[in-house]
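Tip: read the tokens left to right.
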């Protein structure tokens, strides 16, 4: 329960002076929590006994109990706000990412995957690599050859082996990782198909790739120190959606091929 709710419950019992005192308390809760009863009396231009009468009308045993109530109420409100913020932002990251993916024409990307002999995948961070690893597993289910490059050294080692018959997928947060910009330039010059997957926003990877997909990862507050954090759940949703889309693409392609073969076999012979 909040102080506003208590005031509403006992409104008929409150005098004009009580209301003035409570109005000040509502407007300055932090100041009241750090002040003694005499200090508050000076601030509201009332007597100590008037403050005590007001607090007792709300059901408190005295001023100290009301201060405790204010501190406890503020802490609960902060926890509730933090929980709401944390889970709403998680939901928003997932919802916005999936809505975005549903709006994108993935046909050209699926065709790129289908025409590629090898899909080379590289992640600029540990969390990004987790999403890439799951993508790799999903693509194995549709018999697509995917090679995950675990670090920059191996990326540099395979650069000469990657051809226009392959494609590259790079997953990043900022899309501004300096140490692989040179690799992206090489792919661009050699006309090797590249899909860059980054958080929403204009970035170097987006500008220097054949295709670019966005995911959402808003900041949220965690822990008692109220530190800012980001979750890459949006990236995981995007990569999962991408593998499902390609699976459906191969299924439709196989169905169409079967139908075409059936038409040819039924064609009358001369």
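Filled-in amino acids:
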């Amino acid at each position: 329960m909040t102080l506003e709710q208590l005031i509403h419950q006992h409104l008929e019992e409150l005098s004009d002076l009580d209301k003035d005192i409570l109005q000040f308390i509502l407007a300055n809760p932090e100041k009241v929590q750090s002040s003694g009863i005499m200090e508050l009396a000076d601030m509201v231009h009332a007597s100590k006994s008037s403050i005590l009468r007001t607090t007792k009308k709300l059901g408190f045993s005295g001023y100290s109990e009301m201060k405790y109530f204010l501190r406890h109420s503020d802490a609960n409100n902060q926890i509730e706000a933090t929980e709401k913020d944390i889970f709403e932002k998680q939901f928003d990251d997932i919802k916005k990412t999936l809505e975005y993916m549903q709006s994108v024409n993935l046909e050209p990307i699926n065709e790129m995957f289908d025409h590629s002999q090898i899909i080379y995948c590289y992640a600029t961070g540990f969390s990004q690599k987790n999403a890439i690893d799951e993508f790799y597993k999903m693509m194995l289910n549709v018999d697509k050859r995917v090679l995950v490059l675990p670090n920059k050294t191996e990326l540099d080692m395979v650069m000469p082996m990657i051809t226009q018959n392959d494609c590259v997928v790079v997953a990043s947060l900022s899309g501004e990782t300096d140490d692989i910009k040179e690799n992206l330039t090489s792919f661009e010059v050699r006309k090797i198909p590249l899909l860059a997957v980054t958080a929403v926003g204009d970035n170097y990877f987006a500008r220097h790739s054949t295709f670019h997909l966005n995911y959402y990862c808003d900041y949220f507050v965690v822990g008692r120190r109220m530190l800012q954090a980001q979750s890459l759940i949006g990236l995981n949703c995007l990569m999962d959606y991408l593998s499902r889309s390609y699976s459906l693409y191969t299924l439709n392609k196989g169905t169409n091929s079967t139908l075409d073969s059936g038409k040819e076999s039924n064609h009358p012979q001369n």
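The longest strand covers residues 194-199. The chain is about 60% helix and 10% strand.
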